Task: structure prediction
Amino acid sequence: MACDEADIAISALPEHLPAKVAFEPISDIPLSVIAPTAPGAFTEELHNSHPDWSTIPFIVPAAGTARERANTWFKQMKIKPPIYAQVSGHEAIVSMVALGCGVGIAPDVVIDNSPVRDKIERLKVAPIKPFELGLCCLRHQLDNPLVKALWEVAEGIWV
Result:
């Protein structure tokens, strides 16, 4: 969230939240590793009991919490996959995977609502830590009556 551009935002909780930012969780967003359903150069490798991930291209987020989650998962799996593309937007990852460009990691809500969801499959692999979705604002904005009212509503819900 850029300073003074918004009173409040909905965002995934980053690994390191700046002290001047308040965050109120409202939901968890699961993430999945996805692959194209159509046969391709690397899809056969994915169905091996122990795939050689060093031969499987990945489409990854360019930055942010999603990239942090992908990097953490790569370390957890002890893999250094080739990166086919670094893109902005989860929808782009899902579309590029559906086109057969590689494997990706995307939020389930994006996958479930994608027009190309029938062209991808979720892989059964080690789980990825979900996003913690919530409201965030600069702490001093909590003094604003409108922001405070929304914050109090958010404190009482979990979606």
In short: Strands lie at 9-12, 21-29, 31-36, 58-61, 83-87, 103-107, 120-122, 131-138. The radius of gyration is 18 Å. The chain has two domains: 9-27+132-155, 31-129. DSSP finds five helices and eight strands in the chain.
